[in-house]
Amino acid sequence: MPLHFPPKRANPVTLLLALTLLLTSCNQPTSTTDPAATQNLPIVEILETPNLSQPNPQGEWLILSIEEHGYAHLFLYQPDILPITRITTGDWNDTHPALSPDRKQLAFASDRSGYWDLYLMDLQTGNLTQVTNSQHYDSAPSWSPDGQWLAFETYVNDNLEIAIVNVTTAEIIPLTQHPASDHSPAWIPGEGRQVAFVSSRSGDNDIWLADLDLAGDERYINLSNTPNASESAPVWNAGGTQLLWAATTQAIGFNGLYIWDAAEPTRSARWVGDGSLGVWNESATQIVTVIRAPNQTFLTAYNLEG
Question: What percent of the chain has pLDDT over 70?
């Protein structure tokens, strides 16, 4: 069946920030580190949701979670191909969208059942499938490269852990079982046998890597290992060769972005620039981030090729 929902109006401020951040990361022709360059960005509003039979498989895809009328809903946008199109609606929240490697399914977290679970949407038919079904908090899905598994964060036994679930059989396998808080998984593209995540098992939040081919303590490696900083938001580039994350210093609260190179695993991550949350463009030549100042929020792009 085609996807069709009644028209609503989205919160233009929330949409401006989310849309511009993701859109710029994919299509920005030039980069700047001057926050003033983003001051006059237009406000984008959603006026109507058209029918959607099937997204065009070509071109850039932007999947957004936008808050409107007190609830977060999902939207699909393809520049010059598909207008901003609402694909979920209702008196519940849909967040953390993750597009499958073949671009045919969308994984996301939702509290539509009364509890936070993972769902799949078939982008060809609009059909929904509930993947997890528990009273736990399940969120932040990340696809395996073969499209058969999702890594996700789950709240069990009063603690956040990482697990993986088979999207066909719903089989769940714990990936972490530690007294510390483990969350924000990012499955590496390519061979797909490693999952990056945030953990406080070293005393503060660091970026860790779990190798699915190993067991016991040998499975986990601390990539950031910074006792005076707290890391968050790991994101792989499309090739799985570099991992981006944000870090906040404990002493002065300075926010910065860092890149770890998988080809030099023992080398410390290099500083990219200021920022508290970063995204890659598809060619991994630019990073777009949010920089906050008193009463203002700026968008800044860093060109990694100089």
Answer: 80
